[in-house]
Design goal:
The complex is a heterotrimer of chains A (about 160), B (about 775) and C (about 290).
Chain A: E1 5-11, E2 14-20, H1 26-34, E3 52-55, E4 58-61, E5 74-76, H2 89-97, H3 106-119, H4 125-131, H5 142-157
Parallel strand pairs in A: 1-5
Antiparallel strand pairs in A: 1-2, 3-4, 3-5
Helix pairs in contact in A: 2-5
Chain B: H1 24-28, E1 44-50, E2 56-62, H2 64-68, E3 72-76, H3 78-84, E4 89-90, E5 97-98, E6 104-105, E7 111-117, H4 120-128, E8 131-136, H5 143-148, E9 177-185, H6 188-194, E10 197-205, E11 217-223, E12 226-231, H7 236-247, E13 254-258, H8 274-284, E14 288-291, E15 306-314, E16 320-330, H9 338-345, E17 357-365, H10 380-397, H11 402-409, H12 428-438, E18 452-464, E19 471-478, E20 483-487, H13 496-508, E21 516-517, E22 520-521, H14 536-561, H15 572-580, E23 586-593, E24 614-626, E25 632-642, H16 649-668, E26 674-675, E27 678-679, E28 698-703, H17 726-738, H18 749-759
Parallel strand pairs in B: 1-14, 12-13, 16-17, 20-21, 25-28
Antiparallel strand pairs in B: 1-7, 2-6, 2-8, 3-7, 4-5, 9-17, 10-15, 11-12, 11-14, 13-22, 15-16, 18-24, 19-20, 19-23, 24-25, 26-27
Helix pairs in contact in B: 10-17, 13-14
Chain C: E1 5-7, H1 12-18, E2 26-29, H2 33-40, E3 48-51, E4 62-64, E5 68-72, H3 77-82, H4 84-89, H5 91-98, H6 103-108, H7 111-116, H8 124-130, E6 134-139, E7 142-147, E8 152-154, E9 157-158, E10 165-172, E11 178-184, E12 195-204, E13 207-216, E14 223-224, H9 226-232, H10 239-252, H11 263-283
Parallel strand pairs in C: 1-3, 2-3
Antiparallel strand pairs in C: 4-5, 5-10, 6-7, 6-10, 8-9, 11-12, 12-13, 13-14
Helix pairs in contact in C: 9-10, 10-11
Classes of the chains: A alpha+beta (about 160), B alpha+beta (about 775), C alpha+beta (about 290).
Chain lengths: ~160, ~775, ~290
Amino acid sequence: MSAARTISFRLNGALVTADVKPHHNLVELLQTHFGLYGARESCGQGLCGCCTVIVNGRAVSGCLYLALFVDGAEVATVESLDANGQLDPVQEAFIETGAFQCGFCTPGFILMAGQLLDDHPDPDDGQIKHYLSGNLCRCASYPQVIEAVKLAARKRKGN
Amino acid sequence: MPSKSPDSAKVGAQVGRSVPRLEAREKVTGRAEYTHTMRLPGMLYAKLFRSTVAHGLIKSVDTSAAKKLPGVLHTVTIEEVRKVIPDPYYGPAFHDQPILADGKVRFVGEPVAAVLSADPHVAEEAVQLISADYEQLPAVYDEVEALTSKIFVHEQLKPAGAFADLKHLKGSKGTNIALEYRLRRGDIDQAFTTAAHIFEHEFRTQKVLHLPFEPHATIADYEDTGVTLYTASQGPSFVRSEIARLLGWQENKVRVKVPFLGSGYGAKLYIKLEALALALSMIARRPVKVALTFEEMFYQITRHPCTFRIKSGIDKDGRIVARKCQVFWNGGAYADIGPRVTQKSGLTASGPYDIDNVSIDSYALYTNVTPAGALRGFGVPQLAWAHESHTDMMARALNMDPVTFRKKNILREGRPHATGTIIKDAAVEKVLDRLVERMRWSQPLVQGAGPGRRGRGLAISMKAVITPTTSVAIVNVNADGSITLYCGTIDMGQGSDTAMAQMVGEVLNVAAETVRVVQRDTDVTPYDMGTLGSRSLFHMGHAVRRAAEDARDKLTALAREVGEPEGSNIPVPTLFVKRYGMQAGNIIGTGVFKPDYVPPAPETGLSDNVTAFWMVSGAGAEVEVDTETGHVKVCKLVSVVDIGKPINPQLVDTQISGAALMQLGFTMFEEMHIDGGQVINASLADYKIPGFQDVPDAMENLTVDNFQSNGPFGAKGVGEVATFCVSPAIANAIDDAVGVRLRELPLKPETVLRALLAQAGKPLEDA
Amino acid sequence: MIPFDLAEPKSLAEAILLLDPDDATVRPIAGGTALMLMIKAGVFRPSKLVSLRSVEPKYSSISASDDVLCIGSLSTLSAVERSAEVRAHAPLITRTMFTLSNVRVRNVATVGGALAHGDPHMDLPPVLIALGATITIVGPKGERGLPLEDLFTGYYETVLERNELISQVQVPSQGSKKAAYIKVTTGSADDWPALCVAAVLELDGKAVKSARIVASAATAKATRVASVESMLIGATIDDALLAKAGGVAAKEAEILPDIRGSVAYKRELMRVTLGRVVRQALNAGGAN
């Protein structure tokens, strides 16, 4: 009934192809075709942020994004951040401030924090809370995440 | 003692350091593997068909259309399960829960059938094609009603072996009471007659649930020679023994592996999906994965709603002379660990108070809703909600400052708890004093004149760690001096791996970061009762410490064996070379820990040694109430806890703040809305949990200086303690702000506004 | 999810031809956030989705003249949030975007989708109605224009035929009008609202010259509170008038109860929020 289609796109910098059906979402595509599990489906409603993926430079909820929609796009996942074996400043900051517990939501937070710092290199607490308000953490690491983002901002500036 | 480094320098204290989490890199890079996203070759996916009826007899289940869908390999009901597991019932306290509904459904959402396919979408589509016919039965939803109702959720009780004191209940019929715990101390009736004042109140808590972001998931890989389960579980040892029991196998043929756990908070204990995954794998003769969606967690396990009737007698000096507690726990359709909540937390119902005459009746009730089990706090938040609200109400009625009233009555060191156990290392007064200081209690609070009114409140509480339990640990010193730790505690984000590594490092003089903690695997990691109830740091900590000490002693013996002089600083690798001629061999240290315990007497609930340690908690809140809409803003939340000596201060801080914020959600807005047994808000869109904007502007997470004398390095558990007092502290603050007293949770704006308007004589009129 | 087909037309006209006026299982998809929720909840079982993502770029452009701001219906909410034209022409929209759902949703959800969905809990409908917005609807027979408030007929119901699409939103110039929007949540801070009210007012000296007050979330659809608008026009706003107006709004609104509030409570919220949103508009809110 629904035919599979071949898509091609850039994934973490490399050109790739995949056969997908219309009802497959982006998280499924990344996990089943490419073995990338950093984006996880949790709430399934785009509210928790565990499924965050960067498409054409902007964060999207992978659980609500049809896989076919990344045809011809640039896709970046959390795995792209330490591709050369070095941790990204946001990742380092999260470790130093202890801004995670079980870790399930952490990749989503890290990608969103990166987006926030791209838009606002020196955010205050209010800006951080607002920009990340779409990322939930059941372990409630929120206060530590705020510190992590501020530390990451300093690291990015080279302080 | 032999050292690792050639210059034999001491690496310094490991305990007390804020060591970054050992598994940090895996988590921030997204490479940590969780069961929910694991795949095995040849694996099938299971999707579940669930009951839409709260209580009913199953007349028929029609899977014929589902079977015909291309890609469907099996459809399974209890009939097929029985062919592979003849007695398909499980549960930690009662073997009352069938792997799939058996002749009857007892709550909306109970799994009735399963579909297996290599494609999860096909399985999902096939479930839509299954239909069932039920003869509906009357249902009971409320815990107090269930006590005397003639609607019985279970035809007869089926106690498991785990609770020796439940044996007498076997075969009991005509009741919804799964367990009754009673405590009788002194002469309560007499004491009430002498009281100058008597206060009696009732408090209720709502149904809430854990919602770990990694939903429950289990992959069972059954073969006739052995079964391996990959499961998101906080207690792999229990899973192994229960699966072995269901199969009639030796435990060593069952292997349970737990990769990273995407949190649990108590949701992932005992048996959840493991028995079902096992049966399906046995039927399919292939690995089968059962992984819940977020929504399905609303049909798996929740916290216990609770009605607590509390009555206190106060003498003319403001001392509590008598306290009677009746606690009704709404356990849902299957008992899970409810009986233990009823008993082990029931015994703290009277609070952290020094009362000579106490009576507690604590009941675990069956009802026709999703089963309730362990959730961070294990019943104590519901109890503290009642006794701390009650305490403030009495203080106000007596025109006493709530702190003064508490100080007159708190338990102090050396005094007997209601159970008769003498209080030791429970810093109740220190916690209260620190709370008072941080809340600036002696200074007046500006209440405000506009629609926003400010107020403040506080609360204190305590919990007894579940006792007795057993933990075993193994420390392996490798030939190069590196150390591997084998222990069954599950690090679900609370940092136990790191803390255990610190304890090993402290004993063996190595940096915690160098210790490798192996993945949980019951073929490898020894027995542990479970990661629950804040027990691990203390119990497994002792086992780990003992194992490290055993390894240290064996290294010393080895040095002696190879002829080293006493006090030699020979590096460990050299020691092995001396012994084995090359880099070879291991030193294996083992440690076991089980604390002393005196079981409560069945008639009185009294015991001289009821718990290995007490957790003590205090919370203070400053709120601003919008008197026109009922919205409550928590401006400041202070948590003060007694956790003994912090092993890792940064981890301690996050546990306190995380627990307090989780409880904030349970206090202010979380609620399962159930209508005729149906959960109508089973999704994150409609069941809201705290986000950034819900975090109070000011939060303090404090520990008091205390040394747990029987704890490893003076430490004790920290995971739950900051949950206990948040709800009553906020309700007490609302009372302070606007003079209304709320007795039910959550404290949502409509509830507050209704109370405000009712008090003003202008109640909201419902047409 | 149950399998379905996906069509990816290259023009709006082609998309409209792919939609079937009589087949409820064929629907357009733009950002997809709201639609995917419905599919996953099992509320909507599509046989085919018609993607609007590859149609002409003019449908995602934003432009403004002195008189009117034109927002292509396929503009993402993020694009609207960042748009200098929107901020200059109708800053209330920019302010509203700030608290509309979350960044990830705004990055893919479109203006057209937000309106066509007919969800009374969404922020854009009451805000745009209060600003006097109109829309262009395209169907097989051509285009028609409509005041936005006439789009909604009921709970998740609009006048759109199954093969009609919104192509553009027009927001007239706001002159010296003052505007504000309040969203009241009763669960967590980022919950769907129990009630939202948008107010756009024009003053002539101290008297109200024009008023558009739109309530939503507690009602089946975004609804202009006409009786309050009449009360305010020509009057000088003071506490007494607002108290009275709040009472009228509370009494007359057709309120739907849900887990976020009972009828009685939402009426009370309406009574209070009416006054608050008008005061907020007068004190701070420039619509332009």
